[in-house]
Amino acid sequence: MNSLGRGELVRITLSLTVVCAVGAAVLGGVYVATERYRLAAARTTERAALTDLLGLGVSDRVLVVRQEFSPAERRVHYRATPLEGGATTHLVFTLDGALAARETEPAPVAGAPAAAEASGLVPLGRLFVGLRDDRPFAFTLEGETAGYKTRIRFLIALDDSFIVRGVRVIEHAEDPGLGAEVATAWFGGQFLGRDAAGLEAVDVTKAPMPEDWSRALAQLERTPRDTWTKAHGDLMARERTQPIYAVTGATISSRALTDGARATVSHFRRRWALLAPYLGGT
Amino acid sequence: MAGIPLTVDRGPAAPPPIHQLLLNGILSENPVFRLALSLCPAVAVTTTVWNGVILGIAVLLVQVLSSSTVALLHGRIHPRVRIPAYTIIIAVWVSAIDMALAAFTPALYAQVGLYVKLIVAFAIIISRLEMFASRHPLVPSFFDGLGMGLGFLFALMAIAAFREFLGAGAILGFRVLPQKPLLFFALPAGGFFTIALFMALFNAMERRKGGGAKRPAAGGHAMAIALLAGTALLAGHGEARAAAQAIEGVRILAPDHVRVVLAEPLADASPANFRWTAASAPDLPVAVREVKAEGGGRYLLALDGRVDPGGRYRLEVADPPLGRDVRPSAWSLLFGIVLSSALINNFVFTRYLGLCVFFGVSRKRETAVGMGFTFAAVMLLSAALSWALFTFVLKPLTLGFLQVLVFIGVVAFLVQMLDTILKKTHPELHKKFGIYLVLITTNCIILAVPLLNAEANSGPAESLALALGSGTGFALALFLMSCAREKVELARVPESFKGLPIAFLLAGLFALAFMGFSGLDFMR
Lengths: 282, 524
Description:
The complex is a heterodimer.
Chain A: H1 6-54, E1 61-70, E2 75-82, E3 88-94, E4 99-105, E5 122-132, E6 135-146, E7 151-159, E8 164-171, H2 185-188, H3 196-201, E9 204-205, H4 211-220, H5 225-231, H6 233-239, E10 244-245, H7 251-275
Parallel strand pairs in A: 9-10
Antiparallel strand pairs in A: 1-2, 1-5, 2-3, 3-4, 5-6, 6-7, 7-8
Chain B: H1 18-26, H2 40-44, H3 49-72, H4 82-104, H5 106-118, H6 123-133, H7 138-168, E1 170-171, E2 174-175, H8 188-209, H9 226-235, E3 247-253, E4 257-262, E5 274-278, E6 288-293, E7 298-303, E8 313-317, E9 322-326, H10 330-344, H11 355-361, H12 365-394, H13 403-425, H14 427-440, H15 445-456, H16 460-490, H17 500-514
Antiparallel strand pairs in B: 1-2, 3-4, 4-7, 5-8, 6-7, 8-9
Helix pairs in contact in B: 1-7, 3-4, 3-5, 3-6, 3-7, 4-5, 4-6, 4-13, 6-7, 8-17, 9-12, 10-16, 12-13, 12-14, 12-15, 12-16, 13-14, 13-15, 15-16, 16-17
């Protein structure tokens, strides 16, 4: 049992190698077969979230703006591409906010997007601009914040006067029943209707949420947002100046999302002030 | 010889009839409630029924496909390497199903993704391959796999339905009660309690029928594999530090002040000469309101926004051009990772991983300590190796889809290698630790750490810190649990709760206690 013949050694090596090789080949095949669908599904999900958050109509379009910082040249790059694909407007700004370059790049060949990752650019999140008759009418910002467990990724939608249209958590690993509650419409609904200045000053409280407001927010999960906003206008007006009520037992997660939303919106406003003239805004 | 303990050995008898095989899996040998195998997902993903269903189906498919594959390959795999070969077969099916789920059910997959990959380390699957599929032809193996898979699915659904109803007041995602009756059951501690109740119920049923299978306890002694751990620790040394030329130190003083120490005083100490940015928005400086010279090269900056001592920033001076990244020192960061993965996010009590081994070897303090040491050492080695392979091979070649296969391969390789080496060089050490080595392959933590590292794109120091923290955390959990269980041995426990059910209740209490570490923050 302790000594292995040479033939046996070869057999051992051979059987393991064959198992590994066949396994890797099978996986390669599955990867090629499923990757397409995974990407398509991801795109569909994103598209659906955007349609809802931006309140897109049939004839509206969406501009995806990729924001990147290049530490080496100390420039900020913005690449704006229609969601459906097409030519990219590439804007480069200096750190003082002066336009350094502006060019139009033709639509890339399908299947080679992540070229920028290799070139040492720091991603600053994406921005989705809803265009109606070529004028921006709503925005969705991609944000990230350090939650209680891991990072929480979220989208926050604003209308053209920077009033919050919706907050949606798209990725998190918070505890079910506690931190995970910040991903519900009940929690996100508290941000609805707040303007940028209000959001800048908003605080988080551990005080219990008023009964009627809680009941109203609970319906948000099943009601279209516009219907809900109409029905609860007076409650929203009352709560707009109140702090965000933390999820019971999950103050850290609640504060994290609130801080993240505040920072994301404030960053967006400063960047949009530069971008607006070149992307159809004012 | 490398058998997997913690299983019921039924020997190479003629296969029982098909309906018996199916029933066995669901009831009398239910993998979760009776065999107490693959417990991690039973706690982790069962907060809603849908999560339980999707993971249950994934396990069912993996079990049936792997069992069939092994039965088909009967006699073609060299017996010496059959365990690694089985592991690879499982890893292939797991990865394939993982990719398929990610592609076709993305919403559900987002909730259970990590656990689908961890199926590789589920003891139930490999133990069925070893105990059944390798000794029987295709058809009985298929049905044995199906029975086990169905049993697992049934167990997950039962636990999930119970927890979803009590924890969220919902059934299959539909709110049926106006409020949450007992939020406690949605928490990890509640998961442990639920399983304890179900196990006690199954025990009571089995006792009524008269006699049930007894699980053999994994035994063994413990001394010092600390040498190994020491070598691995040394590998974690040597963190490079970015040097700044003239900004010698930056100290963040909450809420909105920063003290800067320069080698020499600045000619221009006006606020406009300083630029302060957060690492997350390097293009948007935070305005400096006021600069107060404190003599020498020391300045106190008052900022127009809050700063967080645990955050990452960059300070720049325009004239003369200087710059320095401000972040918590590498050591305090690593210390933070180690402590947080050992206490706040303890893998056993808050991420519910490694439970099978945890319950298997926490009966005696000696075995617990032995397992703890062995595990921490192998964890560090495998995390280092996995990190290197992922960073230098898989990522550049965009072979990310092979990660499960590669990571489990690394573990299997390390375990087999240590096993062989120890046996030849230190037979007495091997006698003590050999059994734990083999068990490590079925501890999902060992796979979860490289997977989490790969997902977070961690550097070498962070990867090792997570490995060290989770290894220590596991050892700590084992030690605490074994102390408590030794006491419980002497207590009067209701008959149906004896053994694992009471252990689960204990684990639930520990999980509650560990929630107390939640607010801990080392940076502030």
